[in-house]
Design goal:
elongated; 856 residues; alpha+beta
Length: 856
């Protein structure tokens, strides 16, 4: 016999209910029936975190050095330090603003606490707020009501509870107080227990409250939500790595310049100013802003495709997904029990659901007749299996016609012991008793000659994970006033079998196939039975040749090491708990996979939060699941996830283009400064000039680069590994070539000024060359093909921003006010001609390179 499931604090049965004193004593001991609220991050901590970025720290140090230098020189030139601090503040404000809404999963759970429930106290039934329910209360359960606390049943009457939000099972569970459950049993198998957050769909019952608040099964899920830390996204990791590399470059460059300066005998203040210039040159000030804008634009694109993004980094992360772990019920399936096959025993004919539209066999008609369903607002309501049979008739009017033609006069209801239901209907020459129920229970009541064929069809239906319902009838000339089972259920004629299942969504199979083609492994993680889950997974392509299914019981026997070793062998994880789902997600992540997890129930919420990208269903999903997720699908369409992956991959491509664009100019600035000092020419670029190049010449086209459409079919490529550097696949080499080209042409411009005896003009020319070179470079990096093969009309904003940046750069040199502020001198016509010619050199090089590559 199974060991009875008990909690240490569960009280003994008190039929009359608790007294006021006992209620207060229980509340003092076990607390109120409410969830703990997760601590929220203060604004101060958010600001501190936004300023802890390596690149931001470099800028702050540069601003301090610039301010100290200006004070020591007493020259009143505070423009540099003010501008740098302004950049830091703008970045910090944008970072905090774009962080999105704080986690609201617990608040969503707490929304349940505004409801009321019925309890028995002082031997009287009364209604109280569910927050006032305590351990030991006698909970009264009624049809259509939500269950307010975990309880041990002491009385049931046809009680059925819908637990899909907690367990993932789509069918209602029949509860029976006489059953004895064990702690080792899955939640869905604990038939003598009910749980908070589930709902009564049939019958009534009473139970003794065994747990409230955070001690309930739903409370444990709330605890998981509060304890699970969200992992950094691949993009955040890559940008953090980039920041560390930049800091190393800044330190090494500063040491080189200081060494050169000391060797040349330059004053300390001059070296301080050069250090400021280097710090400014190293940091791509607009990178984080452009990345944020790129992600925000991706959010808009995804919204048009029915995917609402709640956290910006999730857009790019989804593009890197290597595993999509999907819940079954309501995600891959319709969460609607449906008649899939019918066997008409009279004609020995099997009909599929499509064929039923043309002809309705008697087994389905009389099976649907023997039900208790109603219609509310054009929706049939009742037990899911009965609703499925009535819906299979077609129009609800068909059901009403059956009821009219065969009026019901008596009923023996379904219960867990009988596992069948019998209704008696009046016919012209007497009565017709219709019995429907479990196949193994009804089989002995049918003639033995029908057993072999019936057993074969039952096995066939079962192999397809169909829930099999047998239907039989018996004609009676007369019935007693209170007919018994023996009277109504003997000498029955077998009408046939009805196979019911929660079917896959029509688009699921195509979406799974497209995900596989994109190099993504789809897996199913569900609380449903392993046979049912495997059948659905096999039908839509998740469970392929060589793939295995793992049950929760088998999973519990495996150590973390064993699971990590064999995780890739399994495509279906069935009958699992919320804790199991987190464990499975973590195991995939240990391999280095980027996991996107889909779900709609409360039981999915912890795994949605733990996954790299949590994706909730917007139509059928619970508030808890939606608030725990990073992305919400407004159409509940699994195929939408695949479209979102395509958008995410395109966004990451644009981020790489942005890094190419910005780093080419920034690294060139360092090389130019160090090379010029080695030549003894002095730095041609000061901090304010470098800031202008980074913010205008790089920034404006960079902002437009975020709008660049996807030119290639990114879904034919493998997912980008999260371990892969942002400079992988040749990007580092391209940046090195750009740095060499940019540096050479800029130093040639400065060298021209030195050679002609006008170093100030040379420095001005170097500034213009580097600015124009950077601006024109944006057209090189749009594609691996010639920049003239990619229509400029595909991104008109890019052309506009390039023109604006060019005009502003030229005006900065021409206008007297800005000449003084930025230390420029006027240029003559010949100098302008040389400057423009040098600025075109990198573009000419890349056009020749692309032409040679395309002809190979």
């Amino acid at each position: 016999m199974k060991e009875e499931l008990r909690r240490d604090h569960a009280p003994t049965t008190v039929p009359a209910g608790l007294t006021d004193a006992q209620v207060q004593q229980a509340r003092d001991k076990y607390g109120k029936n409410e969830f703990d609220e997760a601590p929220k991050e203060s604004l101060g901590k958010k600001i501190k975190r936004s300023l802890s970025d390596v690149a931001t720290i470099i800028l702050i140090i540069a601003a301090i050095i610039s301010l100290i230098t200006s004070i020591m020189q007493n020259n009143g030139h505070y423009f540099e330090s003010v501008l740098i601090i302004a950049i830091v503040i703008i970045n910090s404000v944008l970072s905090i603003y774009q962080e999105g809404r704080a986690e609201a999963a617990l608040n969503s759970l707490k929304g349940l606490e505004h409801a009321e429930a019925m309890v028995k106290r002082h031997n009287q039934v009364t209604t109280v707020p569910i927050t006032d329910i305590v351990v030991g209360d006698i909970l009264v359960l009624e049809n259509g009501k939500q269950i307010a606390a975990d309880a041990k049943l002491i009385e049931t009457n046809e009680l059925r509870v819908e637990e899909s939000a907690l367990t993932g099972e789509s069918d209602a569970i029949e509860k029976d107080e006489s059953e004895i459950s064990s702690e080792d049993d899955p939640l869905g198998d604990r038939l003598d227990r009910v749980y908070r957050g589930t709902a009564v769909v049939n019958g009534r019952g009473t139970g003794i409250v065994t747990a409230v608040g955070m001690q309930t099964e739903m409370g444990k899920i709330a605890g998981l939500l509060g304890n699970e830390e969200r992992e950094q996204t691949p993009l955040q990791i890559r940008l953090a790595q980039l920041g560390k590399r930049l800091s190393v470059i800044a330190i090494l460059s500063a040491l080189v310049v200081i060494g050169l300066g000391i060797a040349a005998g330059e004053p300390l203040l001059t070296l301080f100013m050069t250090a400021v210039s280097l710090a400014v040159a190293v940091v791509p000030e607009t990178l984080m802003i452009i990345v944020t804008i790129t992600l925000a634009l991706g959010v808009q694109k995804m919204a048009k495709r029915h995917a609402i993004v709640r956290r910006l980094p999730a857009v790019e992360t989804l593009g890197s997904a290597t595993v999509i772990a999907s819940d079954k019920t309501g995600t891959l399936t319709q969460n609607k029990m449906t008649v899939r096959k019918v066997w008409d025993a009279q004609n020995d004919q099997v009909s599929s659901d499509d064929e039923l539209k043309h002809q309705l066999p008697d087994v389905l008609k009389f099976g649907a007749l023997s039900t208790n369903v109603t219609q509310n607002n054009d929706e049939v309501t009742g037990l899911p299996t009965e609703v499925a049979m009535v819906n299979a008739l077609g129009e609800y009017s068909e059901y009403e016609a059956l009821q009219s033609n065969f009026p019901k006069v008596f009923e023996i209801p379904f219960n867990s012991t009988r596992k069948r239901m019998t209704t008696v209907h009046r016919i012209d020459d007497g009565y017709l008793a219709v019995t429907k129920g479990a196949f193994d229970v009804l089989l002995p009541k049918f003639p033995t000659e029908s057993h072999a064929k019936a057993e074969k069809m039952n096995e066939q239906f079962g192999s397809n994970a169909l829930r099999v319902i047998a239907v039989g009838v018996v004609k009676l000339s007369d019935i007693s006033a209170e007919p018994t089972e023996d009277e109504l259920e003997k000498d029955m004629t077998l009408l046939g079998l009805v196979g019911i299942i929660d079917p896959p969504r029509p688009e699921s199979a195509a979406a799974v196939a497209e995900a596989r083609a994109a190099g993504i492994k789809p897996v199913m993680i569900t609380g449903d039975h392993v046979v049912t889950a495997s059948a659905i997974a096999r039908e839509i392509g998740i469970l392929g040749d060589g793939d295995l299914a793992l049950s929760g019981a088998e999973l519990h026997k495996m150590s973390d090491e064993e699971l990590d070793k064999h995780i890739t062998q399994y495509a279906v994880y069935a009958r699992v708990t919320p804790e199991d789902k987190i464990r499975i997600v973590k195991s995939w992540q240990k391999r280095g996979d980027v996991v996107a997890m889909t779900g709609d129930g409360v039981n999915d919420a912890p795994a949605l939060r733990r996954a790299d990208v949590g994706i909730a269903m917007g139509e059928t999903g619970t508030d808890v699941a939606r608030e725990a997720a990073a992305i919400v699908l407004t159409d509940d369409n699994f195929a939408t996830i695949v479209h979102a992956v395509e958008t995410g991959r395109g966004i990451y491509g644009n981020v790489r283009k942005t890094v190419n664009f910005l780093m080419s100019a920034n690294m060139s600035e360092i090389v130019i400064i160090i090379a010029a000092m080695l030549f003894g020419w002095g730095s041609p670029l000061i901090a304010t000039q470098l800031l202008f190049i980074n913010l205008v010449a790089d920034g404006l086209p960079g902002f437009a680069l975020s709008r660049e459409p996807v030119h290639d079919n990114v879904m034919n490529r493998k997912p980008i590994s999260p371990k892969e550097s942002i400079f992988a696949n040749g990007l580092a080499g391209k940046i090195v070539i750009n740095v060499m080209l940019f540096s050479v042409v800029s130093l040639l411009a400065q060298g021209y000024g030195i050679h002609t005896g006008n170093p100030a003009a040379g420095n001005t020319m170097a500034f213009i060359v580097l600015s124009l070179t950077s601006i024109l470079h944006v057209f090189n990096i749009r594609s691996d093909h010639s920049m003239f093969k990619i229509k400029f009309s595909m991104n008109p904003m890019l052309v506009l921003m390039a023109i604006l940046a060019t005009v502003l750069s030229v005006l900065l040199v021409i206008l007297p006010v800005t000449q003084t502020l930025f230390s420029f001198v006027p240029l003559n016509g010949w100098e302008w001609l040389i400057t423009i010619g040098l600025a075109l050199v990198p573009n000419i090089y890349w056009e020749i390179h692309k032409a040679i590559k395309s002809n190979k």
